[in-house]
Amino acid sequence: MMIRPSFRNALAFLAAALLAPFPASALDAVSGPTLVMNPNGVTPLAGIIKVGTDVPTRVSLSISDGVDVWGVDFPDFSIDHTVPLLGLNSADAYTVDVYIFDQAHNHKLLSTRLTATTDALPAGLPKTLVIYSNPSLMEPGYTLLDRNRRGGTTGTLYSMILDNKGDVRWYSTVGGQDGMRQLPNGNLLLLNSSEMDLLGNIFTPRTLQVPGVLQHHDIFPTAYGNFFSLSLEELSVPNYPTSDTDPNAPAQTQTITSDIIVEYRPDGSVERQWHLTDIVDPHRIGYDSIAPGFPLFRSPDWSHSNAVVYDPKDDSIIVSIRHQDAVIKFSRATGQLIWILGPHDNWGPAFQQYLLKPVGTPFEWQFHQHAPQITPQGTLLLMDNGNRRASPFDGRVPLPDNENYSRAVEYSIDETKMEVHQVWEYGAAVDWRLFSASQGDANWMTHSGNVMLTLTDTRFIAGLSSALWGLGLSHTAIIEVTHNTPPQPVFDLRVYDPDPTTALWVYRSERIPSLYAANVHVAYDFDHDGVPDNLDNCIFVKNADQRDSDHDGFGNVCDPDLNNDGTVDYVDLFYLKSLFQSHDANADFDGDGVVSWSDLQTMLNMFLSSPGPSGIAPPQ
Hints:
Layout: H1 5-18, E1 29-37, E2 47-64, E3 69-73, E4 78-85, E5 93-102, E6 107-109, E7 114-117, E8 127-133, E9 142-151, E10 158-162, E11 168-172, E12 181-182, E13 188-189, E14 195-196, E15 202-203, E16 215-221, E17 227-240, E18 252-264, E19 270-275, E20 305-311, E21 316-321, E22 326-331, E23 337-341, E24 357-358, E25 370-374, E26 380-384, E27 407-414, E28 419-426, E29 434-436, E30 441-444, E31 451-461, E32 464-465, E33 475-481, E34 489-496, E35 503-506, E36 509-512, E37 521-524, H2 570-578, H3 597-605
Parallel strand pairs: 24-28
Antiparallel strand pairs: 1-2, 2-3, 2-4, 2-5, 3-37, 5-6, 5-7, 8-34, 9-10, 9-35, 9-36, 10-11, 12-13, 13-14, 14-15, 16-17, 17-18, 18-19, 20-21, 21-22, 22-23, 25-26, 26-27, 27-28, 29-31, 30-31, 31-32, 31-33, 33-34
């Protein structure tokens, strides 16, 4: 079919009008950009970038270490920007390009290229060893270590964030608190309910009106704004047992250490509180209920609760009571006990109706457990430390540490029948069993469905001491496994001090999706052309020069849509034919100076599809 000259001329005129460059924008910076690393002196691998613009804009960053490049899109429009620079490695040099976008999708690369150099990690930071990592099967993101400290010593309580290679991507000497977790805004929730961003700024500092003596172990934020936590108290109990080995030993009036479960309002005031001794029997003991626990007190550590969870489905509260080898659930509204998960030994007649009955095989109770979590399936996942794997007076010989093991275990609870099934576990049936005597965590991974274990106080590996493995007196093992049977390890990280007399403890860890807030987009370089996807005008086709002759936000190499109607179709094909062997810049997709067969092939490869995709093109 021939195209008449008059039609060809009209088509060329129309295309020229459609493809004319957009009018120049006044878009520009009026101050900055500037970069200050470690602005508060407590986060050496983090920086802050400031830039002011003449019109409301949003900011995007292109960050490179000379090998890898990635981008960060901040969504908020403003004329004054203060944005964090996160995820840098230690002892490295970086360049940062700053782009600004206005609300009409015009954009500009600012002429000032920022640079950053990071120092080596401090000598006191724990050592890390990645034994195994399979990123394709892992939960995406970074691993947050809430605090690490050397057992039996005082000193800096670092918090750290590691990538899937085990490299430290953030650390701080502020924070370092038990149970620290990331909030959707990217900040870290501290045990005292304050928030800290990754620059070390403290937000919403609260003075918690702690009943009793000391807040400890855990803080649980709710969707309605309140927080749950734990507090210690001392109280006198008559007829308290004096032995966990002799059931006939005389009882005596004894001051014990117990817990208060506390609900705080957002301002730090107390909404309500529940004394644990009002819910369960203070005369019932487990191993370690006789000995002093918390250094603050020298009284027997009867309960040693270590976690609190709020369940909005039925307005209930779940508490892990370590020294009772029990996890309990009670009503928030009434304080009434609902069930007890754990060995049945030594519970009195009044509590028999609350004991969950084990059903099915295999089944094993948890001992000295930590960190129960309600999974998306409604099951209960927790860290079973396994201390002794026996109860006082139950006739079993307590298991020695070097023969013991710790595990993650998942239980399904039927509250109507008061039954419990063990539906999954990891740690008991493995070749290299680990025993972690204290602390720890088991987390459900949101996207992959994996489970990540934190074995905080790992003293034995396959019956041999941690020191014999070169990992110190005890170390922290962070292991991610698939949630099937048998589970498959996909990540194994050890955090340690090689000194055979030193224990290195990370209380809990969690996988966080990003170092930034949930609404900040981090992009990588899919086509390896040196331009991160968020700023790449051809995400899937390599084009380091980013040539975009018609200024529509799509690079020429992925933009055969010559009439800019959003689809590569016959109109574009006819127009390309009319320009064949010419030097038309827009139709020269490969940039070799001539519209030729290679450009036709590019069009045919994308025929009846859209141009791009592009990280910077306006929405169509």
